[in-house]
Specification:
With about 475 residues, the protein is α/β, with parallel strands linked by helices. The protein has 18 helices and 14 strands. It has two domains: about 350 residues, Alkaline Phosphatase, subunit A; about 90 residues.
Length: about 475
């Protein structure tokens, strides 16, 4: 299962045309993404309490094949736990894995191997990942394991439970033997770096999504081959930071992570084609940012992907650089990290300075920092949150009929149902998950405070709109 977090149709077009410019250095050349050849349908993404879903509710649809409220992790609207495809896979002796460029305790990976009513309970989620004994986990989020409020050192607990532990690219590359599984890889304190920052040497020792995916498949395959009781594996791969770049309204951050996601899809499908027993499904949990490719007056019919190559850092990194180097001015940030043919204006600089002075929401400064890039590329954003449009579904299987249930416009729960059907998951197996796995998991507070993302209801429609 692959998830391109936040990648709506406009984002996909932006990624495709930017990749075309990267290859041909002109906007006139036709380019196709590798993933384009596998589109089978579209997914309706709404949750039970909003027409605009969050990643927790969206990913729970993939893991449990049931709709739920925004913020729910492996939990239904009545707060009962739902058995996930990963948990069911473990019961039928499959190996399991989670790979993400976010914290590994973030909403999407968490929804496959944990059960909490509020996605913000990431320290609790880390405990469930240990108790569920996921075989391979690669991503960020080390602070949720070793800098915890309860003072537990979960990294040490994982080691005591037989896990190998890696925390940099060299250690990841050195993994290879079957006795490296189970393994936990945590490559940053929080989310991993954007590809543009990693490519410019600003995250030394940190692997990319492709490296993590390749190693996860290698390790899981070898573990299956060496275990006579094991029959295959289930692996989730998430391109998490596409979404987070869009939350920051930063097209440079989002687009290069999106290009990498296409490379990962290509690798995974080519690997699957070397076998005759592997289903690969990709979709997005939702779109993010309300992206428009072109903005301006009615006579403007253009957008310019070449502008993205005039920036060498994400807005997130620019913000981190400013904070780490007191005295750095906004003008100096643009001089250091951009090479626009149209210089940044005084007004654009002042907007960033105003956001810095105001403080508060960390995204406001990043959005202001990224705005000159969007303006010159002629792309626009309507929100720093999610948006409610349908998203694409892609599928590869040795026999194409396995993808048929995903053709057309389907509910996002149908993605989860296809995963379950491919694993032969039935009611009896789900009952076994409840009886054999759930009792081994800590039952955290079911009345945990709601996060802002699942407050309110789709039925709370205002009588008047301002």
């Amino acid at each position: 299962m692959m998830v391109s977090d936040g990648m709506g149709p406009s984002t996909l077009t932006m990624i495709r045309q930017t990749k075309g410019y990267l290859k041909y250095k002109t906007i006139d050349s036709e380019i196709e993404l590798d993933i384009d050849h596998y589109k089978v349908g579209s997914s309706r993404t709404y949750s039970t309490n909003s027409l605009v879903t969050d990643s927790a509710a969206g990913a729970t649809c993939f893991s449990c094949a049931q709709k739920t409220y925004n913020g729910a992790i492996g939990v239904l609207s009545d707060k009962t736990w739902c058995p996930t495809v990963l948990e069911a896979a473990k019961l039928v002796k499959m190996k399991t894995g989670l790979v993400a460029t976010s914290r590994i305790t973030h909403a999407t990976p968490a929804s496959f191997a944990s059960h909490v009513p509020n996605r913000d309970q990431e320290e609790d989620i880390a405990v469930h990942l240990l108790q569920n004994r996921v075989d391979v986990m690669f991503g960020g989020g080390r602070k949720m394991f070793s800098s915890r409020k309860d003072k537990r050192d979960l990294v040490e607990e994982f080691k005591k439970n037989g896990y190998s532990f890696v925390e940099n690219e060299a250690q990841l590359s050195a993994l290879g033997a079957k006795d490296n599984v189970p393994v936990l890889g945590l490559f940053s304190s929080s989310h991993m770096s954007f590809k543009i920052d990693r490519d410019n040497g600003r995250s030394p020792g940190q692997p990319g999504l492709l490296q993590m995916a390749e190693k996860a498949i290698q390790l899981l395959s070898r573990a299956v081959d060496s275990d006579s009781d094991s029959d295959g594996f289930f692996l989730l791969i998430e391109g998490s930071r596409i979404d987070q770049g869009e939350h920051q309204n930063d097209p440079v951050a989002a687009v290069f992570d999106g290009i990498e996601y296409d490379d990962v899809w290509s690798y995974v499908v080519e690997w699957a084609k070397s076998r005759d027993d592997t289903l690969v499904v990709s979709t997005s949990d939702h779109a993010t940012g309300g992206l428009s490719l072109n903005y301006g007056d009615s006579k403007s019919y253009a957008w310019y992907p070449h502008v993205f190559f005039s920036a060498s850092a994400s807005a997130e990194y620019m913000q981190k650089y400013r904070l780490a180097n007191p005295g750095t001015t906004v003008a100096q940030l643009y001089e250091k990290f951009t090479s626009f043919s149209e210089p940044v204006t005084r007004e654009e600089i002042e907007l960033v300075e105003q956001k810095i002075a105001a403080g508060g929401d960390e995204y406001n400064e990043m959005i202001a920092l990224a705005k000159p890039i969007s303006k010159r590329a002629r792309v626009a954003w309507t929100t720093k949150g999610h948006s409610g449009e349908d998203v694409h579904i892609y599928c590869y299987a040795p026999e194409s009929k396995a993808c048929d249930p995903l053709r057309g416009v389907v509910q996002n729960t149908q993605v989860g149902q296809v995963l379950a059907d491919s694993l032969g998951i039935n009611a009896d197996l789900l009952d076994r998950v409840k009886k054999e796995i759930f009792p081994k998991l800590t039952n955290f507070d079911s009345n945990a405070p709601a996060s802002f993302m699942h407050a309110g209801s789709v039925f709370d429609v205002p009588e008047t709109l301002e």
